[in-house]
Amino acid sequence: MQELLERKKGFRRSILIVDDDHIAREILGKMLEDQYEVSYAENGVKALDIIKRDKLKLSLVILDLHMPQMDGYSLLKLLRSDNELRRIPIIVLTSEKGAEVESLKIGAADFITKPFDMPEVICARVGHSIELAEDSIIIHETERDELTGLFHKEFFFQYGKRLDELNNNMPMDAVVVDINRFHVVNELYGRSYGDLVLKTIGDSLHELVSENGGLACRRDNDQFCIYLPHSDELINKLPQYIAAIDERINDSNISLRFGVYSDDGSEKCMEHRFDCARLACRKLRNSYVSCFALYNNEQHCKELYAEKLINDMDKALSEKQFMVYYQPKYSIKGDRPQLSSAEALIRWSHPEYGMISPGQFISLFEENGLIQKLDRFVWNEAAAQIKLWKDKYGIDIPVSVNVSRVDMFNAHLAEILENITKQNGLDNTELLLEITESAYTDDSEQIIETVNKLRGLGFRIEMDDFGSGYSSLNMLTSLPIDALKLDMKFIKVICENPKSARLVGIMIDIARLLEVPVIAEGVETEEQMELLKKLGCDIIQGYYFSKPLPPEEFGALIEKELR
Predict the structure, then answer these.
(1) Domains by residue range for the chain, with CATH
(2) From 259's CA, which of 155, 279, 375, 390 has a CA 20 to 30 Å away?
(3) Is 425 left (phi over 0), alpha (psi -120 to 50) or beta?
(4) Helix axes 551-562, 371-393, angle to 10 degrees
(5) Where are the alpha helices (DSSP H) in 283-370?
(6) What is the pLDDT of residues 210-254, one digit of tens each?
(7) Which among 39, 21, 20 has a CA at the least distance from the CA of 29?
(8) pTM
C-alpha cells in the first residue's frame, strides 16, 4: 500500500506492452514513454514471466488479444484467476468489435482499438485505468483488517446494509465471537502468538462465509462478527464450526464464546441483530459449561429494563422518586415487645414502572458504583427523620442504614457520616450502620480498619445477613461489631425445620460469647417470635409486627407506643 501511495505522489509507473506486432509495440511505446517506464513482450508466455517477476512494480499491462503460443484471452483469464496478479489492470488491444465486450466480461479494465487513436486519448485511457486500479487497492486495503483479512467494522456494517437492501431484507443471522480472556493470552504468550490466534480465527471465519454466504469482520481487538443468510440449522452446526476452529488453534488454554441472534422474522435492522447477539455472548462471560448462547428476547428486555433504571437514577434522586420507608424493630427481652429502633428501607416510585422493589435495583447499582449516591440519600433522609421524631415525640428512635461494600472503600466515609449526624444535631450512636457479613471478607484488613474508625467515632455496627456462610468462626473473634443480624432464610423455616432452629440457637450462643445482641429479621408469625424469644434472641423485625412504613405511618406507630 505504501508503494501505491508513493506512486500517486509522482513516481513513474511501469507498463508492459504485449503484442506480437513489433511495429505496434514501438508505436505504443513512443506514445507512453514520456510518462511511464515501458517494457515489452511479443507473446503471452514471455509476458507471464515478466509479470510474475515484476508483479510488485507493474501498474498496467496493455495486451493484444491475438498472439502465438499464448493468446491475450488465455493470459487475461489466467491473470484474473490469480489472487496476487489480478490487482494489475489490463487494457486489451483489438480491431474486432465483438472482442471488446467479451474482454471486458473476462476482466479487462478498458480497450484500445486498432489502428490507434490520437496519443492523448490513449494516454488518458491508460492514466484512468491505473488511477482506478490504485484507488481500488487502497480502498481494499483500508476496508480490511491487515492481520485477519476480514472487513473492518465500518465497512462490514456498510456492506451488510447494502446486502439487506439488494436482497429485499432477506432473513439474516448475526453471530458475535469473543475470545475468553484474550488479554491474558497476550500477556502470557506474547503478542505474536496472540496475532497468530487472531489470524487463525480470521481464516476460519473467512472460509465459513465463503461456504455459506454473508460477511465477517474483526470488530474489536478480540471480537468478531459474522452476518449469514438465516438457517434453522445454524445452532446445530455451530458445535462443528467451533470444533474446527479449536482444532486449528490447537491450544486448550484458548476458548471462544459465540452469541447468536437467529432471525425471528421481526425484521430488525443489522445493528439491532448484533446488539442481540452481543447480549447473548455476554451471558457466557463467566460460563465454562457452554461456548455458545442463543439470544433470548426475555433476557434482552431485562437488559433494557436495567439500562433504563441506571439512566433514570439521577433524575429519580432529583425528583425525589426514591422514598425511605421504616420497618420497626422490637425488643422481646421483657414481658411485652417494645419498639426499640427501625431500619431504613428504600423504595422507588418510578413514573413509568410504578413502585419498584429494592431487589430490582440495589444489586444493579452495586455493580456500577451508583449505590454510593443512593446510600448517601438514604443516610440523609434517615438522619433528618430521626431528628424530626425526636423533636415531635421527645424520644430517640435509632435507625439502621445500609453501608454497601463500595462505601466501605471510600476513604472519606467516616467524614461523610459524621457530617450528616452533625447537620441534623444527632449523636453518632443514633445512626446504626448495617454492613453485610460478605463485606468483611472482601478485604478484611481494610474493612476492619474502617469499622474500627467508625466505632471510635461512636457509630454502632450491625453485621447483616449473619450465617450466610462467608465468615469463619475464627474470623468472628476479631471482627469489630455491635450486633449480629441473622440471615432471613433461617427464620423462614425455623419452626418447621429442627436443624434450622438448632443453627439459630448456635448463632445466638456465638453472639453471647461475643457479648453482642442478636436481631432476627423476617419474622412473620407468633410461633416464630415465641421460639426466637425462647432461644434468647434480643430484637425482632418483620411483618409479624409491621411491614415497612412511610414516615407518617411510622409516626402513628410511635404515638401508639407512647400511649
Answers:
(1) 2-143 (3.40.50.2300), 151-295 (3.30.70.270), 312-556 (3.20.20.450)
(2) 155
(3) left
(4) 40
(5) 297-318, 362-368
(6) 888 899 999 888 899 999 999 888 888 888 888 899 889 888 778
(7) 39
(8) 0.59
